[in-house]
Design brief:
The structure is a homodimer of 141-residue chains.
Chain A: E1 15-18, H1 20-28, E2 32-39, E3 42-53, E4 56-61, H2 65-72, E5 75-84, E6 87-99, H3 103-109, E7 124-138
Antiparallel strand pairs in A: 1-7, 2-3, 2-5, 3-4, 4-7, 5-6, 6-7
C-alpha cells in the first residue's frame, strides 16, 4: 500500500483525558448541550439548554417526544463541547434522567431561571444524575 | 396557581420547521456534529467532524468504542446546530451507519480530505444513509 497524504498520520498524546473536577468547570461555563436518548424507533438527539447544580445536569422540556423518550428510557447521554486556547474539549455525562416532581427541587437547581433553547412553554424540569462523566481534549492541528 | 415570571410564557410560531433542502445546505455549511449511538450499556454520544456528499453524511472513526457501537447497532442519530441571523437552528439526521468497504466510495465522498476531530490515526470511514432528516429553527428571545 502506498502512502496517502490525505490520511492523518498518528501523533502521540493528541487526546488528553480531562479530570472530573475540570469536566464540571467546563460544563458550568457553557449553556447548550446535546441530549441523546433512546426513542421507540432507535436513538435520537436534541439540543438543550442546561444548568449544572450540585453535581447534576438540569434542563427543561416542553411536553413532547423528548420527554416521552426520557420517561420510557431514562438512561441518557449528554454532551457539551467547546474550544479553549485553540484546543477543542468535549464532556459527556451519562446517567438516568428524571422529571423533577417537587417545586423545592426545581427552585434549588436554578433551572427555572434558564433561558430555554426552544422558546415554547416548558413546564417539565429534568435532572440527569451522572453515573459517569468523562472529558477529552483534542489537540487542533 | 400564581404567575411565575421565571417560567417561559407561550409564544406562537417560535419554532419553525426547516425544509429538507435547506437542512442539507445547513449541514454542508458546518463541520462538527454530534453522533448518538446505542452502546452496549445504553446511549452514548460523540463529537465528530463530518462532510456531506450525495445525500449522505460521512465521518471518520479510529478503531475504538464508537466504531464498535455503530457496527453492533447501526441505527444512529446525528445532530448539527448553528446560529444564523440570531436564530439557532438544529438539523437531525437519523439512519443506518455503515463502514465504507471500498476505496472508490471513500474517495468519491471526499471524507478522506476531512480534518478529524481527534487527531489520531483514523482508517475507518463511515457513511450515515439518512432515513429521516429534520430541521428546526428557534426564535431567540
Amino acid at each position: 500500500m502506498t502512502a496517502d497524504p490525505s490520511h492523518d498520520t498518528p501523533t502521540a498524546h493528541t487526546i488528553e483525558e480531562v479530570p472530573e473536577t475540570e469536566c464540571w468547570e467546563l460544563l458550568a461555563g457553557e449553556k447548550l448541550g446535546r441530549l441523546a436518548v433512546l426513542a421507540k424507533d432507535g436513538v435520537d438527539i436534541y439540543p438543550v439548554n442546561y444548568v449544572v447544580s450540585n453535581g447534576a445536569v438540569y434542563f427543561r422540556s416542553a411536553p413532547g417526544q423528548k420527554l416521552v423518550d426520557v420517561t420510557a428510557s431514562p438512561f441518557v447521554a449528554f454532551e457539551v463541547d467547546g474550544v479553549h486556547e485553540r484546543r477543542r474539549w468535549s464532556v459527556v455525562v451519562r446517567g438516568d434522567a428524571e422529571r423533577l416532581a417537587f417545586d423545592s427541587e426545581i427552585h434549588a437547581s436554578g433551572i427555572a431561571l434558564l433561558k430555554s433553547q426552544a422558546p415554547t412553554e416548558k413546564w417539565n424540569y429534568v435532572r440527569i444524575s451522572p453515573k459517569t462523566i468523562t472529558g477529552r481534549r483534542f489537540t487542533s492541528r
